[in-house]
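Deviation from plan, reported transparently: flavin-adenine dinucleotide complex.
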Amino acid sequence: MLNVPPQAFPAPSSQQRVAASGRAKVPLKPGRSLMDWIQLTKSGKDLTGLKGRLIEVTEDELAKHNKKEDCWICIRGFVYNVTPYMEYHPGGEDELMKAAGTDGTDLFDQVHRWVNYESMLKECLVGRMTVKPVAAPKEISSALSEEKKRLNGMLPEKKALGASAKDLTPSYDWFQTDSSITIVIYTKKKEMNAESVVVDCQDKRLRGEIIMDDHSYLIEVDLIHAVQEDMTVNIAEKVGKVEITLKKKDNIHWKILGHPLESHNTFIKRTDRGLFYRKCKLASKTEVTHDTKLLCLMLPKSTHLQVPTGQHIYLKQIIAGTEVVKPYTPVLPSLPLDFKEPFHRDGAYIYLMIKIYSSGLFTQALDHLQIGDYISVSNPEGNFKKSQVQTSEDLFLLAAGTGFTPMVKLLNFTLTEVSCLRTVKLIFFNKTEDDILWRNQLEQLALKDERFEVQFILSQPTKDWVGKQGKISSSLLSEFVKRSRKDSKVLICICGPTPFTEQGVQYLKDLGYCQEEIHAFTA
Ligand code: FAD
Ligand code: NAP
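Because the crystal trials were delayed, the predicted structure below was used instead.
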């Protein structure tokens, strides 16, 4: 229902008026009243220009739509195409244009926080923002300008950061030999690991991000001289020291490391850091089922990136002139069927298991990629932490369709590295037998490792199916999710279509499992 106090959207008037709030109202043309707007939104006309599809919008993409005839505005993370609404806006076009191509939440809140814009602009909804706009804290900005001077040799290092900031913030240093440059980052945090470090060096631009819980430390420099393509990253895990070694292209002495970029030497909340993308080459594409493929993407030589268990990345493509971003959860090339050694952690490839939807905007474009084509891949994101499962005795994995993807690395990690693990049960929901991903491998794994069990449940089986059938329900879950011992430590992970996940979590809570015992994978 529309929730709009009448004074906010007056009937068309030929007189310009000022509302009680002080906000100017402008005369609206005949036929541009609120009722006219409502009728337009109900007319079935495509008001977003996206034919009803919702997309994920990057800050860069949002900024491009900043003209009256092409105007997108973000409010609380949702992006609206307000061009069709321009002439209907009681505050006038100019008011609306103040937020064109930007996050207009603050402006909106100042003027009409109480307006139910969600329903007003429902038909104008383009999609969600992929990242929140970054606002660097003041002290970081000032530290940064100091840092710029230091990097350019204008200040001695000891003056670069204030004492209190220095205690909390990681720091870095660099040194050189005739043939190499080494950048050393002191994270001041013990127990760093390779997954916490993402480094890219392309076209003389070095970017090294260290993830420390929910914070991110970044070094980002335009190097003063060229380097070779290969790069090594060494992590002294126990002392929290990260060493990035680059090979000089020419054996000359570097007077300075380079020129710092905007976010260089900042330590901010991870969620405030924009996503960084690098181009990866499609190395292979193999069939998993009739509609699902395993894509192997090759990272550039000068990238160090390992996607942590339970996290996802974003793929970015330009589709019909618009930047489109979608999340995907990397898997492994296969299930851990050989237990002699954990998987070789080369880190040179990312494997994605992707279902191609016949009417899918993004997956259709993905399916048209040829071997050797490039696609942009972001840094990892996600809120799953390995520590959640490290002390588990019983692990239950509830997956529907491609919701199986986060379970792949989880299976590998728990079966090879969690010593207290007693049982792992995968309850895998699919429509038909043909839809079951890696069925053969799952059955082999169950034969090889007595801790692992798999249960397939089909919602649309053929007559021949003798296994379980149905949809996620309280009774199915009470049948399959059981502690191996009365007080055993349990973790239940769930992933699939949003309603599946939401229903599953509710059923589990109703069955007496607490919040800490349940992890739902979402975007
Ligand atoms: P759209 O153009 O958005 O939709 C077209 C049609 O396809 C829809 O009408 C519908 O019929 C069907 N469809 C689209 N999306 C869905 C959906 N989510 N559920 C059911 N039907 C749908 N997908 C993978 O294949 N592998 C992954 O590893 C993976 N990881 C993900 C991780 C996260 C954190 C999230 C949130 C989603 C993940 N997805 C994954 C889903 C993926 O992000 C896209 O939603 C999916 O690829 C469809 O995109 P599309 O543009 O092709 O479809
Ligand atoms: P699908 O084949 O359409 O469905 C798989 C099974 O789930 C089917 O048995 C289906 O039953 C059931 N199901 C579908 N919708 C349901 C609902 N609303 N309530 C209960 N059961 C439902 O699944 P898919 O196309 O592979 O989609 C997988 C989903 O997982 C996508 O939405 C994707 O975004 C999500 N995903 C999320 C993440 C993440 O968040 N990290 C990672 C990977 C995938 P029916 O016969 O009734 O349809």
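The CA atoms of residues 488 and 509 lie 17 Å apart. We consider this an acceptable substitute for the interim report.
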